[in-house]
Amino acid sequence: MASNGNGTRERYEVREHDVLIVGAGGAGLRAAVSATQRGLSVGIVTKSLLGKAHTVMAEGGMAAALGNVDSDDSWRQHFIDTMRSGKLINNWRMAEIHAKESPDRVYELEQWGALFNRTPEGKISQRPFGGHTRRRLAHVGDRTGLELIRTMQEKALATDAKVYMETTVTKLLKNNGRVVGALAYTRESGKFIHFKAKAVVMATGGWGRIFKVTSNSWEGTGDGVVLSYDAGAELVDMEMMQFHPTGMVWPPGVRGLLVTEGVRGEGGLLRNSEGKRYMENYDAKKMELSTRDVVARANYTEVQEGRGSEHGGVYLDITHLGYEGIMKKLPTMYEQFKNLADIDISREPMEVFPTVHYTMGGVKVEPETCASNVPGLFAAGEVAGGLHGANRLGGNSLSDLLVFGRRAGEGASDYVEQSTHSSEIEEQELLTEIGRVLEPLEKRGDGGESPYLIQQELQAAMMEHANLMRNGDSLEQGLGKILNLKDRLPQVSVPGSRLFNPGWHTAQDIRYLVQISEIILRTALERKERRGAQWRLDYDGPDDDLGAINFIVTKDVQGEVGIERREIPPMPEHLAELIRDEVPDMAGGEKRGAESQF
Ligand SMILES: Cc1cc2nc3c(=O)[nH]c(=O)nc-3n(C[C@H](O)[C@H](O)[C@H](O)COP(=O)(O)OP(=O)(O)OC[C@H]3O[C@@H](n4cnc5c(N)ncnc54)[C@H](O)[C@@H]3O)c2cc1C
């Protein structure tokens, strides 16, 4: 118990671990398994329940060059496809590690109990997906994430890791420049916990909730990327947000809910209101299995140009599979449309439209260990940036979680074993943070700002100004709106107590949403070109001078967003030779695409 400086006495618990993992999705759980295998004490904190997180929602599958269906697949081909889709601004070393290690992680998951769909010969089956030139996605029907999380949870719970559910981290704590723990509160009771730790692994997922129409759940508010930024971490390519081509459009209450790319992987056809398979105008070679950025823009354009469906989407038709085929390969999709839209997708096409889905940017990490530039802070999964460059390939996230979750757990363990530093911090720092978190409750009754209204205004502004097609003037206007919301944050107040108070939780979330939105708008203004997910209408193609540039964001000494252009180091020859032939095709294709499409 201690004084918070306002004369009141504030209690907080203290918990101590060698490694603290923030997030219980696939990345966090995989990191936890690695660290416990090293005999370290591990705490896993999640703001929801075990078994939730975005990982459980993943449908289509996990990309790994097993070569079970297309025997000529290889890590090299997976590397090429990942780099090509990322428009070459990926961290090439991460792409190499990912392509090489994904097969081992899939087999490991199987050994730990995951039951994958099989080929007739009994091997793990693999389905095609957009932008993958081989059939590569290991899957469990359209419930792959559920199987991954079930397996990882059983594995993690069998260790000595201690799980803190419904506990939200609000700040990373530092001593002598090192991260040495975190402050958190329990969502049920509002009690504070000071976590002391020698290392922290950030695994908090993405930030789709800065947009109104998104496939992400309430958890996707990007806490970890802002907590890391506040602690001094570098962020990379934050302007790169993925719009998935196919979200539900109808009924309005479920707008944005994902329609898995597995539908197109299983032969689903996109048509406009004229019945035309319009992908031939956008990518005649790959058609529906082009990369997500291309298909999303195609769907958007068809609707903009008046060839949309009844409810403002396009048609996605999988009826050729028939009821039996759909129930075998896409049962969740069948149930989703039947229950939510009263549509039988074995008889009628679905209506779909792009939805905000994934964040390619994030905390910049060192590929071997997932260490950030701040000692003691590691990051893995969607919160980390680099692997996917300007556009992620479907299925590459689930394998990313396992490959780099494992490496983050190992990296943090190595760091802990080599360090002798203290995890103590000044108590006043804790009390100041507790005071900040409680502030919205203490202002109640004096007519302050509603966190819900700020959230709504922010989501509307991002939909209007930072959507999948952007231009400089509109981005500037969006930035003005977000900075206005930032000015209003100190006036946020919420009624009620700390107990079960969603308004209070939203008051915490909007701080992250506002900060991330500001960063995205500023970096989108800086990247003056069309590349992958960053599609500037005021530029007519990629800028060759930005072809090997990452935009790095840090909090500067005034506490403002600092942006630096950083050259991507040249690739070693064994990788460079793999993509040498790809470069002209990618750059030219992008330019040609830009001209023919828009
Ligand atoms: C509908 C849908 C379908 C998808 N399908 C696929 C697919 O088929 N294949 C594929 O590769 N990818 C897919 N993806 C993407 C993939 O699922 C995600 O990128 C991935 O699961 C993210 O995993 P993660 O471990 O990084 O984070 P998450 O799974 O999002 O977990 C984040 C964790 O952090 C916790 N957390 C967040 N903030 C805090 C805080 N302040 N304090 C404490 N805890 C916190 C959350 O509670 C949660 O436990 C899909 C995504 C969605 C939304």
**Contiguous helical run count:** 16
Q: Give the assembly state of these chains.
A: single chain
What small ligands are held by the chains? flavin-adenine dinucleotide
Q: Would you tell me the structural class of the helices and strands?
A: alpha+beta
Q: How many DSSP-defined strands?
A: 23
Shape call: globular
As a whole number of angstroms, the C-alpha radius of gyration is: 23 Å
Percent of residues in helices comes to: 25-40%
Strand content: 15-25%
CATH structural class of one domain: Alpha Beta
Distance between the termini: 62 Å
Average per-residue pLDDT, rounded, comes to: 93
Largest sheet: 7 strands, mixed
According to CATH, the fold-level topology of one domain is: Flavocytochrome C3, Chain A, domain 1
The CATH superfamily name of one domain is Succinate dehydrogenase/fumarate reductase flavoprotein, catalytic domain
CATH architecture of one domain: Alpha-Beta Complex
Low-confidence segments, given as residue ranges, are 1-7, 584-598
Can you lay out the helices and strands and say which pair or pack?
Layout: E1 2-3, E2 9-10, E3 12-22, H1 26-37, E4 42-45, E5 62-63, H2 75-85, H3 92-111, E6 126-127, E7 137-138, H4 144-157, E8 162-164, E9 167-175, E10 178-186, E11 192-202, H5 223-230, E12 235-236, E13 241-248, H6 262-265, E14 269-271, H7 292-304, E15 314-317, H8 322-329, H9 331-341, E16 350-359, E17 362-364, E18 377-379, E19 384-385, H10 396-418, H11 427-442, H12 451-465, H13 472-488, H14 502-526, E20 530-531, E21 534-535, E22 549-555, E23 561-567, H15 573-579, H16 582-597
Parallel strand pairs: 3-4, 3-11, 4-8, 11-18, 17-19
Antiparallel strand pairs: 1-2, 5-7, 6-7, 9-10, 10-11, 12-17, 12-22, 13-16, 14-15, 15-16, 20-21, 22-23
